[in-house]
Amino acid sequence: MIIHWKRTESVLFTFLVVICPCFILIIKQSFHSNRGPVIVENVIRTFNGTKTYTPSAESDNCGRNLVLLRQLEEIAKKRKVPDIDCSAIFSADEEKLKETVNIAKASRGGLKSAFYLNATQSCQDFQKSRGYVTSSLTSEEGNFPLAFSLILYTDLEMAERLLRAVYRPQNVYCLHVDRKVSVNYLKAITAIAACFPNVFISSKRVNVVWGKFSVLKAELICMEELWQYSSWKYFINLAGQEFPLRTNLELVRILKAFNGANSVSGRIKKNDERRWSNAPPLSGIQPVKGSVHIVVNRHYVDFILHTKAALKLLKWTKRTRVPDETFFPTLNFNPQFSINGSYSGSPNEIHQFMNRYKIWYTQDLCAGRLRRGICILSTGQTNSKDVWVLTLIT
């Protein structure tokens, strides 16, 4: 099983306008299975002063799930989207695909900060109208909380959509808002976070610049603040322009199957050595180039925050090029750090990480366009096996 995330930008709206009605049908069908409503033994209601969870009665959660179902059904009815032949779209019917693109072009633009500032005047109404899942849904999910960091700098509606997609009351979310965002953006995202007891804006904010240490710094800020919440099992970091293709339950089951293993990409190639040519590697440490996006257990985060070895490596990383692509992989692929769940094989093995799949410019698979060498897919790629088996980038 693989964890799937997708990189997105404004064109995501094109995809969601068309595809969401299809997903809603699937969601409704799953709720109306013969097994009846899912009963959850523990519903996360609030985070109290000690940052622990408050359980609720099983019958109470059953009722909450039924109410949530009705709310989502009402939202689905109100979507101002014409009837769409989903099967034709997924079969790559050229005429239907053209129709969907035209529908998206004729649709409204993204929601602005004024909308969110007004909508969050009543948090209860905001959660309901936007379709947030305010129940843990299953005891399996309630007993396996996750921690997320969301690094945000643009496209407010997309950021809110991402939060809504991954939100569950048992998880905890740190939002790092780039220092260069507008005042209205910051006010709006702060108002959104204030509507949830388990969502917060990081107390420190940096101006994130691609390829610089600030990318890594933003992640470390959220790691440090998320560490205060003692119950989560795994940490997942997201960019504000990503979107999940797995439900929270699927994530939980995948991570339980990991059995404590970390998912961090890495490789060792001769030409990568240019990145640390001005900073000789630490004695006994093999630098590894990979990705800043990771899925790691609590011990990995604990090691980063509280050991001299990690601090020493971090100081060295600051002197390298694109440090965010070196720090996490080097920790994961050097067994001498003795981090629980780290990778003991060769970094050059093909399947040493499973949290993301990205279609790069060297692969002849992209039906959309490229940005920073990564494929930005479009609706035309909905029939691709690479999209549904591996990832969806729009």
From TrEMBL:
Q: Tell me the protein's name.
A: Protein xylosyltransferase
Q: Where in the cell is it found?
A: Membrane
PANTHER family given for it?
BETA-1,3-GALACTOSYL-O-GLYCOSYL-GLYCOPROTEIN BETA-1,6-N-ACETYLGLUCOSAMINYLTRANSFERASE 3, GLYCOSYLTRANSFERASE 14 FAMILY MEMBER
Record the organism.
Biomphalaria glabrata
The entry assigns this protein to a family as follows:
Belongs to the glycosyltransferase 14 family.
List the GO molecular function terms: acetylglucosaminyltransferase activity
* Originating gene: 106068871
The portions of this protein that span the membrane are: 12-31
User: A Pfam family matched by this chain, by name?
Assistant: Branch
- In the record, which residues are listed under signal peptide? none
**Which ranges of the sequence are coiled-coil?**
none
